[in-house]
Amino acid sequence: MSFTDLVRLPKRERAPLSSVGRRVGFACALVLFVAVVVLLGRDGYVDITDNSIGMLDALYYASVTVTTTGYGDITAVSDGARLATILLITPARILFLILVVSTTVEVLTEQSRELLAERKWRQRVNNHTVICGFGATGQAVARDLVARGMSAENIVVVDNEASSIAEANRLGFVAVEGDATRNETLEQAGITRAASIVVAPNRDDTAVLITLTAREMNTTASIVAAGKEKENLHLLRQGGATEVIDATAAVGRMLGMGTHAPAAGLVLEDLLGAGVGLELVEIDPADVDDIPQMPEGTTLVAIVRDGERVSQADVDQGNIAPNDRIVVLRES
What we know:
Elements: E1 7-8, H1 16-40, E2 45-47, H2 55-66, E3 74-76, H3 79-124, E4 129-132, H4 136-147, E5 155-159, H5 162-170, E6 174-177, H6 183-188, E7 196-199, H7 204-217, E8 222-227, H8 233-238, E9 243-246, H9 247-260, H10 262-272, E10 278-283, E11 298-305, E12 308-309, H11 312-317, E13 325-331
Parallel strand pairs: 4-5, 4-7, 5-6, 7-8, 8-9
Antiparallel strand pairs: 1-6, 2-3, 10-13, 11-12, 11-13
Helix pairs in contact: 1-2, 1-3, 9-10
């Protein structure tokens, strides 16, 4: 299998077996139609064996006629039979040929269309997001990104399960079927031109290897990786992940909050749901004139500087550095 076979572009769902079945049925109907015409005008046909024309003979004549084989052992000799051949059997033969040719052309055209679409996609894909692993976590990430305004065309899914690839295509995402720990698979996803990479497989060891491979191939992209075991989180950071999410701890904290502070849990769930209710977002420091004066409709939550949250004392002094990341709360 060539590398280009790994890419799966989303496309309109079709029922190929149903389409082929209809065409086969129509072809059989044409053969049967010709056989009935011959059987009704059997007196106008001559068999070289001098036997009378029966149903089997009519079907045989119909099959060799519509396929333009024409052995000549059964021929039309009367004027009526020849007229039926001109007006009925010949059009049926043409329709049969069109049916066969159109099916072949459609298959070839579909293949050419897919290759052309893939070539166009490769030319325009840039600054996109690659999601490695499209299980429950990867699908949640994709839904969140779309809810936050990212176009589905800017999301590429990588997974080695055919069912996950089919689901990604159904949702409108370009998908690459293959092992995300391999360079050639990530190359197909345009990893070198990606702006961000999400690492969300089902195993921590796989997540570490994907992170290492992705960072080696793209030194500037933001890599967000999820880990399940706490002892593996530092491996993800050492592997080049920009952000590491402790998935198990995050779920545990939400469960604990839901137990002791259900109202706070509801607010947190609201914050995590993009596109509705409250949301946490980052704003550009250039858009902020002074810390006490946040943009209208926003509330300052934190300032992150060099990967650490700035203390409240520094926030109160109103010091903002050009590279600060300002996190605010606002209505979606």
